[in-house]
Amino acid sequence: MTIATDHSRTYGYDDLPGLMSLMTGDEKHGPAATSTLDVLWVLYDRVLRVAPERRADPGRDRFLLSKGHGPMAYYAVLAAKGFLPADWLPGFGSYDSPLGHHPDRVLVPGAEIGSGSLGHGLPIAVGSALGLRAQGLHDPAVWVLIGDAELDEGSNHEAIAFAGPAGLERLHTVVIDNSSASHARPGGIAARFEAAGWSAVTVDGRDHEALHAAFTAAHPGRPHVVVARVEPKNA
């Protein structure tokens, strides 16, 4: 499949595999990337209030990719939505490319954080939601995408335990569940969040309508988590 890199072109969901195919080389973390593809598309296409021209707008939504060790799908979606040119994609991971194996917020247009180390994104998202609330900015939503294996890290559980009682209702977490966590969660992933006072829903991570319904569900006074189940990493 050949993808043109005309900057004026409009890309759709069906173009994403072709955009991802432009990124070659070693250490691609392909399963980590493809597991996030549908979640990222639904968020950027139908939910997030972000756009290339609003990158510095204080009223924009914030999306934080904590699962940053597999960023190919993220880069493909950013290219499809006009944040970066598609002709950057073939350079992925090369010495002089802005598109590293972990996203760099200084180099990647639209990236809110540098990420890839497990367990950092959710605590940063909690801080972002607190900071926005302290500034009186109650409209912007904060979204963070994490992997189920990140729940092996204690920093995430501290963030979960804090955010519920703090009533951070503008905080939204998406957990990609591809069965890669080392430790089982009694009652499932959603139950861990619910125990801390979060609103929680578990859906098929490939079903766009189910994802959209879960992303837009009302959760007054509480942070919200969507557990998106996809095929097991090693299947």
UniProtKB/TrEMBL annotation:
<comment type="similarity">
    <text>Belongs to the transketolase family.</text>
</comment>
<feature type="domain" description="Transketolase N-terminal">
    <location>
        <begin position="29"/>
        <end position="226"/>
    </location>
</feature>
<dbReference type="GO" id="GO:0000287">
    <property type="term" value="F:magnesium ion binding"/>
</dbReference>
<dbReference type="InterPro" id="IPR005474">
    <property type="entry name" value="Transketolase_N"/>
</dbReference>
<protein>
    <submittedName>
        <fullName>Transketolase</fullName>
    </submittedName>
</protein>
<dbReference type="Pfam" id="PF00456">
    <property type="entry name" value="Transketolase_N"/>
</dbReference>
<keyword id="KW-0786">Thiamine pyrophosphate</keyword>
<dbReference type="InterPro" id="IPR029061">
    <property type="entry name" value="THDP-binding"/>
</dbReference>
